[in-house]
Amino acid sequence: MLWLFFAVLTGVTVWALLSPFKARQRTRSKARETSEEVALYRDQLAEVTRDQERGIMGEAEAEAARIEVSRRLLAAVEAENLKAATKPATSPRRVAFAMMLFVPVLTVGFYLVLGSPDQPDAPLAERLDHSAQTLPLDALVVKVEQQLKEKPDDLRGWEVIAPAYMRQQNFPMAVTAWNRVIALGGATAERLAARGEAQVYAGSGSVFPAAKDDFLAAEKLDPLEPRAQYYLGLADIMSGNKEAAATRWQKMLNNAPKDAGWRPSIEAELKALTAPGPSQDQVKAAGDMTPEARNDMIRGMVAGLANRLDENPDDIDGWLRLIRAYGVLGDSDAKAGAVAKARATFVADPAALAKIDTAAKAQAPQ
Known about the structure:
Blueprint: H1 2-53, H2 59-85, H3 92-114, H4 124-127, H5 137-150, H6 155-167, H7 171-185, H8 189-202, H9 209-221, H10 226-238, H11 242-255, H12 263-273, H13 280-288, H14 291-311, H15 316-329, H16 332-345, H17 350-361
């Protein structure tokens, strides 16, 4: 197949290079047509003379015919001379033949020197013939998909591929996979929460009713299911009920193991949520300012936060405040830049990335 592809590509390239010579062929055809026109007009001049001698045409009529035919003859001769002057010195056929020979030879030569003709084939089946633990993510997904085509009721296969789709950011397929898991193995708190999370990501970070229903169902089965509690807290924030979110997340922390991997992220999120607002003096001072001065003050505070995060980028709480602040200011470019920096900083922390995406896509709580 590779050599067939190379042959087709070479043929297309040669055809494109020969296109100008096809145009020249058309030009030569037009030149032949011009030569035929010259001969025709000369015959017409001779015919006019014969008609005049036979008395068929009068002298005035014959003279007018000669003038018109002579005018056309001169135009045809000029066109013929112009095409003769621009005629290429090299035969187009020779150039075309050389090109048809030169391009394939040059292509093969470059491949033999720069390519890998001795590289053995790597069929997909052989590349997938390894244990799941040693396969890269994309190959693992392909292998499991092939297995599921043969055994569509393989519960274990669906449980493996659903998180893999999440890592690939193929969220709609992750939702479909979790649907199959629940249909085959029943609903558990963990499965419902995982499907709800996939629906959140598929919905651009918003906790839509379908996802919230999954989280509520997971909460009924396990009131301490952490993923369900986290996203239900986000739903509380989006509805303007920050106190309910803070209570929910604090309850999560109180009942979570000390070594829970998500504990630091929830603590930072809770700290940002419960951070005290400005003092009464600050509120009064801001109220006495002109709109321009107040805006400058706010931007100065935001710029100070941005500078501090440049020095200490591991502060997830600070990044969330900065993203929301830019959203309030309506500075979409700065907000996008903050989101990009935050994602780059916490690229290996899925929980942090989820919070960053939520802060970027949801309205900042008022």
